[in-house]
Amino acid sequence: MTQRRFHRSLLTVASISALLLMPVAANAGMGDIISLLTTITGTLKNGVGQLLNGIQAINAGMADLQNRVVWPVNVISATRTSVTQIRAQVSSLAEQVHSIPTNSATLHASAQFESLLRGGQTANFSQIQVSYAQLYLSLPKPDQATAIQRSLGDMNDAIALGALKTATASDQASEHLLAIGDSLEQAAASAAPGSAPILIAQAQVSDLESQAMLHRILAVQLRQEAAKLAYRNALTKQSAEANKNLRNNLQQIFNRTMR
């Protein structure tokens, strides 16, 4: 584009010069006209032509520097081939591992519940809750258990369901991250020179999403441990209350016997 603009500018200058000199050339002879044209041609060839040759040499040097140092074509081609080969090997192994069946439940209710848990779909949360109640039973009615027993059972169910739902959401997020990783691999195999920072930024965002999901799972584990401690502590308190009631009853029986 620079050379074309330069040529256009030179042609414009030459045209203007010719127009300005036309009155002189009209009164001059053929030799004078030929001499004038020769002078203009020599000026364009020797002065401007050398400048154009210098610009062409600079452009050629920059292109050679980019091809050899900044974005070496041979290294980029070899890297693309290597990425494609590694991706084909790893993808094949990942598909084989992913296709291995891991479901172990045999009875209908437990097999259905396990299938929902391994489905990795947050849209199945309501079905998971129903299947959980069918498999692990519902809360006893108020006339079948004490208030503290019903409260503890309800809280344990809530913690268990929360952990199972979070695990399901984690599986879904993992599939999403795997899809992003696959798209990044495809982009890396055919990326244009200079686009690596964009791919790196996308990979870093995906890594942040993965870290956030890991932190969420860690929070679920901490809640489970806290719930276990609270449950054991509640059992200890309930046992102490039962012992207190037993002592009071025995004391009443002893008092009646002494009378």
What does this structure look like?
The protein is rod-shaped and about 155 Å long. It is mostly helical and 259 residues long. Helix 4 packs antiparallel against helix 5. It folds into three domains: 69 residues; 36 residues, no CATH class; 120 residues. About 4% of the residues have low confidence. The protein has seven helices and no strands.
Q: What order do the SSEs take from the amino end to the carboxyl end, as H and E?
A: HHHHHHH
State which percent range the strand residues make up. under 5%
E-strand count: 0
Number of helices: 7
Q: How many domains would you count in the coordinates?
A: 3
The stretches of 5 or more residues where confidence is low (pLDDT under 50) are 19-28
Through-space gap between termini:
119 Å
Summarize, please.
The chain is mostly helical and 259 residues long.
Question: Which terms summarize this structure?
Answer:
86% helix
Topology summary:
Blueprint: H1 2-27, H2 30-70, H3 73-98, H4 108-118, H5 125-136, H6 147-189, H7 196-258
Helix pairs in contact: 1-2, 3-6, 4-5, 6-7
